[in-house]
Amino acid sequence: MDGSADPDRRRTPSSARVEAFSDAVFAIIITLLVLEIGRPEAGQGDLGQELLHQWPEYLAFAVSFLYIGVIWLNHHALFAGIRRVDFGLNWINLGILGTSALVPFPTGVLASALSEGTRADQQAAVVLYAIVAALMSAAWVPVFPHLHRHPDLPVDPSEARVLRAQRSRPWVGVISFGAAAILGYLFGPVFAIPLFVWMIAYHAATSEGLHANRIARLFSPSHPSHAAEDQRVDLRSESLAPDEAPTGKPTHDPENRGA
């Protein structure tokens, strides 16, 4: 390292290793989900019936697979706009991975309870699943404030205002999964599972931000006029040729944010 470098400069290594490690963890989590689908023990001629009897395991796997997949999409989109990581962001990322790694456990519990458990067992399983999912959402709460406070970490430091506007996204998950836990405990899984599906749809639509597309803008807490203004800015940006970009500001290619 150059000895003339500023000694007060923070040590912020590239995000590449963190991204690779995170991708590996998400891949392992998704692989572990399928292990919660048990092999049916059936006599001769009963295999088809036993396979159909395991439908709760298929449902639990599908919901968890989609949710983990959508969380990975959010994680991928987040780190596409981050070029460096610091100590705090590393720990926040570990919190995201740690809570995500818990998902196979409540998935198996929920599948077993729906297959063979009593109503009380099903209520307990739904509450467990909702609590783990709420913890996953809570792990994302410090992400956007941290990036807003440290503009040297994103690829484009000017995106600090945009990152700050994303702070509501994790709280939607915390509140929705909290409501699912309460409804599932009081009234049963049939009232909680729709909220699980709703959160998959929400995180899928907003995976690249609250202003990434028209559907995502529907969930933005900002005033509708602000959303319309953002749309007009996007249209102007798309119609602006690269050689017509304002002087002193490099053109921004969202496909190469991590380059």
Descriptive notes:
- The chain has one domain (16-37, 50-256).
- Helix content is 66%, strand content 0%.
- The protein has helices at residues 16-34, 47-53, 55-80, 87-101, 104-116, 119-139, 143-149, 160-164, 168-187, 189-205, 214-217, 224-239.
- Residues 1-8 and 223-259 have low confidence and may be disordered.
Short description:
The protein has 259 residues and is an all-alpha fold.
Poorly predicted runs are: 1-8, 223-259
Give the radius of gyration. Answer: 22 Å
SS strand fraction: under 5%
H/E element sequence? HHHHHHHHHHHH
Largest sheet: number of strands, sense, barrel closure: none
How many domains? 1
CA-CA gap between termini: 22 Å
What's the overall average pLDDT, rounded?
Answer: 79
Estimated structural class: mainly alpha
Write the layout of secondary structure elements.
Elements: H1 16-34, H2 47-53, H3 55-80, H4 87-101, H5 104-116, H6 119-139, H7 143-149, H8 160-164, H9 168-187, H10 189-205, H11 214-217, H12 224-239
Helix pairs in contact: 1-3, 1-4, 3-5, 3-10, 4-6, 5-6, 6-9, 6-10, 9-10
Which features does this protein show?
single chain; 259 residues; mainly alpha; 12 helices; 66% helix; elongated; disordered N terminus; disordered C terminus
